[in-house]
Amino acid sequence: MINVTLQVNEIAERIHEMRKDHVRMIVAICGAPASGKSTLAAEVARRLTGQKCSAAVVPMDGFHLDNAILKTRGILARKGAPETFDADGFVHMVKRLRAGGDVAIPVFDRARDIAIAGAEIVPHDCQVILAEGNYLLMDTAPWDQLEPLWDLTVMLDVPMTDLRARLIQRWLSHGLSGPAATRRAESNDIPNAQGVIDHSRPADITLNRG
Predict the structure, then answer these.
(1) Mean pLDDT of the chain
(2) Which fold, 4-205?
(3) Of 43, 37, 33, 31, which is closest to residue 157 (Cα–Cα)?
(4) DSSP 3-state of 93
């Protein structure tokens, strides 16, 4: 059984140790699809806020390219793969967050399956930014431009067998039959997960989430 509280404690403690050397910290929380990134980032933000340290979660998902663009490019079925994001736009946003000031960020609306520009503001006085996404430690361009922008990196390590089960369950929860859910996961989500495992640089903190 994973002790999430201990993992949240570990990250929060490391952040507090490093904060004296940073006006603003940017932390990357990375992992394959269904590894638990969003949940962990939210829990760490909640912990930091309770400790009087302002924190904001910035998901990579706000940089999904629109379905119309993916359809035109013939890659709609690959949505979620590295090439289906505005990676350069995400790098630019992280650089703006690094520079300081109020920064407007896009947010992905899963119910409508679209990214909404300027949906949230990260205020200038936010002390810790928790970026979360699949490809934050990717060693291929243009994602590799992110490496020098992170103050702390966290990787969620989940065995592929567990990821496969979770990814199939995601589609089952959307009403797909067992065979259809398996096909959807195996045609896109599972290859994306393997890509994260194969092409991510080592993190400062690696958490076992199996």
Answers:
(1) 95
(2) Rossmann fold (3.40.50)
(3) 31
(4) helix
Nearest 5°: phi and psi at 80? 110, -15
How far is residue 69's CA from residue 132's CA, in Å, rounded to a whole number? 24
> In the chain, what are the domain boundaries?
4-205
Q: What's the CA gap between 203 and 197, in Å, rounded?
A: 12
CA 135, CA 29: separation in Å to the nearest integer?
Answer: 10
Cα separation, 73 vs 65, whole angstroms: 11
Both tokens of residue 29?
Answer: 């929380």
> What's the DSSP call for residue 140?
S
The structure tokens listed for 180 are 């259809």
Average pLDDT over residues 25-36: 97
Q: What is the pLDDT of residues 132-163, one digit of tens each?
A: 999 999 999 999 999 999 999 999 999 999 99
Question: 62 with 115: CB under 8 angstroms?
Answer: yes
Task: Check: CB of residue 40 under 8 Å from CB of residue 206.
Answer: no
In the chain, what is the straight-line distance between the N-terminal and C-terminal CA atoms, in Å?
A: 9
Q: Which two tokens stand for residue 206?
A: 């690696």
Helix/strand/coil for 73? helix
Residue keyed to tokens 């706000």: 62
Half-sphere exposure of 56 (CA within 13 A, CB side): 21
The DSSP letter of residue 4 is H
